[in-house]
Amino acid sequence: MLLSVNGICVAYDKISALTDVSIECDQGEIVSIIGANGAGKSTLMKSIMGRVKPSHGTIFFHGEAITGLPGHKIVEKGIVCVPEGREIFNGLSVQDNLEVGAISRSFSPKEMKAHFEMVYDMFPILAEKRGQIAGALSGGQQQMLALGRGLMSDPTLMMLDEPSLGLAPIVVDEVFDFIKKINNENGISVILVEQNAYMALEISRRGYVLENGSISREGASNALINDPTIKSAYLGK
């Protein structure tokens, strides 16, 4: 198993945010995590990335315990998170934002060039705008930049926190196509945290439902899509 989160608990000022949460993601999978606002989805991502330390439980990556490691060490091991709201550096150029994504890697000039070319091949609009200030990009272009910045760290696992947030429907479709491409063509495993539950389950192999800090349901994505309770609560059907 590539990533295994085993029974983690997280609290903020003694208020429970996650209780006994366990999830798994295998090599080559897209795994979706759905749930309402405040369910604990972002806290789960932060726990995996070392930004929040669980009070109980263990997180394994490639069979190695990474619980509580600092974020830069986790990125070095091959996990990257594209955060909710993108968090690009608005005052830097597109190219500089991408270069920041590789800061944890000791790439040679040749390797750095290859990574730039890989990102620009996937997102041609970024190649066109490489010298522009990132804050001048459209919302969809900024999301592509955030994805590209994540790819620059050469990850084995990408975690995407609400990638469709604030985007027009046609742009959301494009972003989800890129997520599938990252998985299919680059062989990168993906954990997708997303309020657009139907689209998330549609492109993933397996899914988890997070409610009030606990996993309430899990299973094959097609089974969750057809579950009447899930349909009613999250799919608007």
Strand content: 25-35%
- SSE string: EEEHEEHEHHHHEHEHEEHH
Main pleated sheet? 6 strands, mixed
Shape summary: globular
Question: How many extended strands?
Answer: 10
Computed structural class: alpha/beta
User: How would you state the average pLDDT, rounded?
Assistant: 94
* Count of runs of 4 or more consecutive helical residues: 10
Kindly provide the radius of gyration, computed on alpha-carbon positions and rounded to a whole number of angstroms. Answer: 17 Å
Residue stretches low in confidence (pLDDT < 50, at least 5 long) are none
**Helical residue percent band:** 25-40%
Strand order of the largest sheet: 6-7-8-3-9-10
Give the termini distance in whole angstroms. Answer: 34 Å
Q: Would you mind describing this structure in some detail?
A:
- It is a single chain.
- The mean pLDDT is 94.
- The radius of gyration is 17 Å and the shape is globular.
- With 237 residues, the protein is an alpha/beta fold.
- It has helices at 41-48, 71-77, 94-101, 109-122, 124-128, 139-151, 169-186, 197-203, 221-225, 228-235, and strands at residues 3-12, 15-25, 30-34, 56-61, 64-65, 79-82, 157-161, 189-193, 206-211, 214-220.
- Helix 3 (94-101) runs parallel beside helix 6.
